[in-house]
Specification:
The protein is mainly beta. The protein has no helices and seven strands. The chain has strands spanning 11-12, 18-19, 22-28, 38-43, 48-49, 67-69, 77-79. The strands form three sheets. A three-stranded antiparallel β-sheet has the order 1-3-4, with no helix packed on it. A two-stranded antiparallel ribbon has the order 2-5. The N and C termini lie far apart (27 Å).
Length: 85
């Protein structure tokens, strides 16, 4: 599946990480001891990530579209543009 607004510098998300199509664009890659990186991840309609964890945490900033997030054992939560999780 192709999404016309995916930047040319994006790479497909690894198949073991997503169901469907998603693309990753690195916006800020850490140097030195920093572990903070910033990626833009775009999902095709119906695509989703597989269950995984982020031991050091993760911040999601929704810029367009809608979707769902869920913490282990918790309810699914609708997210919309402007939401930060």
């Amino acid at each position: 599946m192709h999404v016309s607004h995916v930047p040319a510098t994006s790479t497909p998300a690894p198949a073991e990480a997503v169901t469907g199509s998603a693309w990753i664009t690195s916006l800020a890659v850490p140097e030195g001891p920093s572990r903070t990186r910033v990626d833009r991840v775009q999902f095709a309609p119906g695509a989703r990530t597989r269950w995984h964890r982020h031991p050091l945490g993760q911040v999601l900033v929704v810029t367009e579209g809608t979707g769902y997030v869920q913490r282990r054992g918790g309810p699914a939560q609708l997210i919309r543009p402007g939401d930060t999780v």
